Amino acid sequence: MDRLAKTTVDRIEKVFDVPAGYRRAHARGKSYRGYFTATGSANHLTKAPHFQSGESEALVRFSHFSPDPKWTDAMSPVKGMAVQFLLANGEVTNIVGVTSPIFFAKTPEIFSEILGVVKSFKKGKPSLKELGSLLADYPESGAMLTNIRKMQAPSSFATGQYYAVHAFYFINEEDQRQPIKYLWEPEVGVETLSPLDTVSLSTGSFEKEIEDRVAKGPVKFRLDILLGQPEDPTDDPTKEWPKEREKLTLGTLTITEATEEAENIVFDPTIMTAGIECSEDRILNFRHHAYQISHHRRTIET
Ligand code: HEM
Predict the structure, then answer these.
(1) What is the DSSP string of 93-147?
(2) ipTM for this model
(3) How far does the centroid of ligand 1 lie from the alpha carbon of residue 290, in Å?
(4) End-to-end distance of the chain based on CA atoms, in angstroms?
(5) CATH of the domain at 275
(6) N or C terminus: which one in the chain shows less Cβ crowding within 10 Å?
(7) Per-residue pLDDT for the chain (302 aa), expressed as one digit of tens each?
(8) Which domain holds residue 85?
């Protein structure tokens, strides 16, 4: 797994222009501090301390998905929101979300193979011609890569819906396991950019906008979970679960002030506290290795 992760990060560096010291994905972003207030509504499903009613501190990083920080805000329609909860016992636990409910590759091998045939993403768009027959073999990847061109970005980091994409398991005191998926809902409502607005966006306008917004008052997100049914896949990030699945609100994240602190953090989505476990999803488990390699490289470069 580690070798494939190294090859994959090498390939990201080859097809994107990644400057020294930057994350190998979601290179440009902005970090905040805040706190999470739990409702306690899922304490029959998980023993995770930050989901029992009460407050936990949190660090948050908003980002544009591109590994190249020079891409304009509009070239990265997918935005990220990574959250690290700081628990009272000194542990940390992460939820890493993006403004897309699905990922374009089902396995690490497919992800790496797609990167391997792409010569360059430097102009911001994958050449579908280049990917040609590969996408015929992986229709789920083709569908999403075609859609990236049409995907609408949120109008602000504060108005996106962020999905953690993969399934996770909640484990309760009796060791019962419930598959779940996370979703962050913006308190101010979802708002997307029109293609016309997108054209006029200058680079860094998202960062400037969120800075101004937080200076006026806290930015809030509600954390919901979808409860998986036995027929819902827990190993396939290219598949959404039915929208009518039962939902529970776990709490509210209140973002209060900018901090540089989160820039150095690795928001590894497999780091979590007792009461939550990774699903069988191979992309999720692979991310652990890729993120460690990226963190190591960006740290030694600075
Ligand atoms: C094969 C699959 C994937 C690979 C190889 C990959 C790779 C990476 C790498 C190398 C980083 C930078 C890590 C660092 O230096 O700290 C990163 C960051 C990130 N990735 Fe992924 N990723 C994958 C899938 C996903 C998926 C499915 C999501 C959806 C939630 C996602 C969301 C993010 C976000 C939001 C960040 C930025 C986190 C931050 O602000 O530090 N990634 N990814």
Answers:
(1) EEEEEESSSS-S-SSHHHHHHHHHH----TTSS--HHHHHHHHHH-HHHHHHHHH
(2) 0.98
(3) 8
(4) 27
(5) 2.40.180.10
(6) C
(7) 789 999 999 999 999 989 999 999 999 999 999 999 999 999 999 999 999 999 999 999 999 999 999 999 988 889 999 999 999 999 999 999 999 999 999 999 999 998 988 876 766 666 667 777 777 888 888 777 777 767 789 999 999 999 999 999 999 999 999 999 999 999 999 999 887 787 778 899 999 999 999 999 999 999 999 999 999 999 999 999 999 999 999 999 999 999 999 999 999 999 999 999 999 999 999 999 999 999 999 999 98
(8) 2-300
Residue 271 CA neighbour count, 13 Å, CB half: 19
Question: CA 169, CA 198: separation in Å to the nearest integer?
Answer: 38
Q: Please indicate if the annotation marks 22 as binding a ligand.
A: no
Counted domains in the chain: 1
| C-beta of 69 in contact with ligand 1 (< 6 A) | no
Hey, whose CA ends up nearest to atom 8 of ligand 1? 25
